[in-house]
Amino acid sequence: MPRSPLALAALATVAVPGLDAYDVRRPAHPGTDFDIAVVVDAARRRWVVRAPVHPAAGAALEAEVELLDALGTASDAGTLPCAVPRPVGFAHLPEGGRAAVHAEIPGRSLDVAQLVPGPGLCASLGRAIAAVHELPTSVVENAGLPVYDAEAYRARRQAEVDEAARTGKVPPTLLRRWEERLEDVALWRFRPTVVHGDLTNERILVRDGEVSGILHWGDACVADPADDLSWLLVAAPPEAADSILEAYQLRRTELLDPHLTDRALLAGELALARWLLYGVRSGNDDVVADAVEMLVELDEHTRPTWDDEAATAPIATVTASYA
């Protein structure tokens, strides 16, 4: 049973000595792995309390706390051009694990549909994501979070496709499309970087036309940088996506990755396979039906040709509803 906002406020007062809770409310997008509340103290300062709802989330929180310390140092130094949560206190939970409290980062959730191409917010987005990918991989390694090389990550994606195929719910022509791309060795020659791992509009905060913060780092790892760009390529207006990619490439110091966009678009397609698998594993028939409907639509749009140029536009249309 989810913890009530009042119970979360009580945890916040334990975690932060002297915090005098004046008001408490649920955030607009609470998530599923954590009970979350925003606590307002008597001085009108706002605090976010996060309590894991299962042991796996608790373990992820502990690794995230370790990572956030390093990310906070990068933010202070300007290496990371936005804020990250900075835990200031913890409260032990009766069932084990602990809740964490951090000051709320000012800003509102990103509205991808309203992005306008040019040097403003799109450029800030591109630079912020690029800065994450430029961080030393040691920040992830030292936190005990996953580290993949390019081949291991390709194999991970292949395993997901194989599992999705075993459900019998993925159209055969779509499976062949994915198999061809996964077997294309050139496509998977990339330098793994630090990646956030779960970027969505709810994870990115915006203030005064710039990215002000990035939240929820529990899925961070060293992996394919294309994954952090995938959701933007499928959800943002095409011209805005071009501006984001241009700013991103200008901020990166490594040589141009010629297949970055191809892998990002493929990641958008494979997100539907993961959505299907989530529905199957959790026994949620509504999720399964939703995933199957989108997979069939994607198959219909991509079946006429294997040419990437023809496939790119419909991929963005179909997967935007998932992103």
From TrEMBL:
Report the residue ranges that make up the Aminoglycoside phosphotransferase domain in this protein: 27-249
Please name the InterPro entries in this protein's record: AGP_Transferase (IPR051678), Aminoglycoside_PTrfase (IPR002575), Kinase-like_dom_sf (IPR011009)
Q: Which SUPFAM superfamilies match?
A: Protein kinase-like (PK-like)
Membrane-spanning segments = none
In terms of PANTHER family, this protein maps to: AMINOGLYCOSIDE PHOSPHOTRANSFERASE-RELATED-RELATED
**Protein name (record):** Phosphotransferase
- Organism, scientific name: Cellulomonas fulva
